[in-house]
DNA sequence: CGGTACTTTCAATCATTTTTGAAAACCAAT
DNA sequence: ATTGGTTTTCAAAAATGATTGAAAGTACCG
């Protein structure tokens, strides 16, 4: 396979993954492109590589900067801006976890708490079932949140080791517990 | 707050969360509705509760069944079908992890492997950077996949305990490692 | 200043996804 | 085998989300 072909394939796959997870396909593609570019790229270069308009490139670059995944660079002497992506994938993952937690998990947790405050006069089975579901849900979502918080702060090595340890345990006691 | 109001709020929040994560808003709402209904519901009831058409209700119910989150029930004497959701949230979470892993993580892992096979004659910095990014990426994605595999099989209690242990550790050695 | 080289914005357009609703298929009871 | 209640399908319509492109904005330079 040629490099160009491989890049293309990777960019497409990353775009598809993104769009399955609620991230704008083009934004994911721009990110993919920057990830595999050793040098920072101008808006121009990105537009050309992905066949998108200036406006589109600009918007998605801003969004990526907003997510903390991409940064601007001013090359001295040059007037135009260049963009490059954080290359340490663990950092990228952490940044994504941080943002999604903030943007999506927190609001849901908030609603779950609010919704627990039902007028307790209603003692129907419906109310009971509702409160039970909600409280289970907020337990799990809360745990996920806590977990992501840990992952977000952890050193890559520590986190990895813990995973391995967990994995080893599971293997040993596989179908018995 | 009244029960009806609380339900509505919850259904909306769940729908919004779903759509941020690439899941059809209505599908998430149907799921939410069934989650908080102690009794199984007919398609009719769901259509009414969410103001959606028969076709829409049907399609999303099928999709939920497909994801293993909802099941049909035939009430004896009745001709119409009733639907209910798995209420154990840990099981729901596991099912979702299982499906997304299968549907989205696996294909990406496959592409990452394919894309490593570049004609090694191209020894440019671009090729190097590309291969490095890809290999880092497949390490992380592979680890995420393995982690989800564990989570997917684990008993709720065991998993929770491990999380707590991880959390305790992090707290103790917070900013030093 | 005024010009040049860019970046940003945003209303209009285009593309994709979701929803509808009516027709077809299904299926149990007569 | 016909009826009536029900589910399923799917082409078309509606809604939503993404993209464009041109105009407005910004900043640097002489």
How would you describe the overall organization of this protein?
The structure is a homodimer of 177-residue chains. Chain A has seven helices and three strands; from the N terminus they run ααβααββααα. Chain A has 177 residues and is mostly helical. Chain A has helices at residues 3-20, 25-35, 43-50, 54-66, 89-115, 125-153, 156-172; strands at 41-42, 70-74, 81-85. In chain A, helix 1 runs antiparallel to helix 2 (25-35). Chain A is elongated, with a radius of gyration of 22 Å. In chain A, 69% of the residues lie in helices and 7% in strands. A three-stranded antiparallel sheet of chain A has the order 1-3-2. At the A-B interface, helix 1, helix 5, helix 6 and helix 7 of A face helix 1, helix 5, helix 6 and helix 7 of B. Chain A binds a DNA duplex (30 and 30 nucleotides) through helix 4.
Morphology call of chain A: elongated
Task: Give the number of DSSP strands of chain A.
Answer: 3
Element-level helix/strand string of chain A = HHEHHEEHHH
- State the secondary-structure class of chain A: mainly alpha
Largest sheet of chain A: 3 strands, antiparallel
Beta-strand fraction estimate of chain A: 5-15%
Number of helices of chain A: 7
The separation of the N and C termini of chain A measures: 47 Å
Largest interface: A-B, 67 and 67 residues
> What is the chains' assembly state?
homodimer
Rg measurement of chain A, Å = 22 Å
Q: Average pLDDT of chain A, to the nearest integer?
A: 91
Low-confidence stretches of chain A: none
Helix content of chain A: 55-70%
> Could you give the order of strands across the largest sheet of chain A?
1-3-2
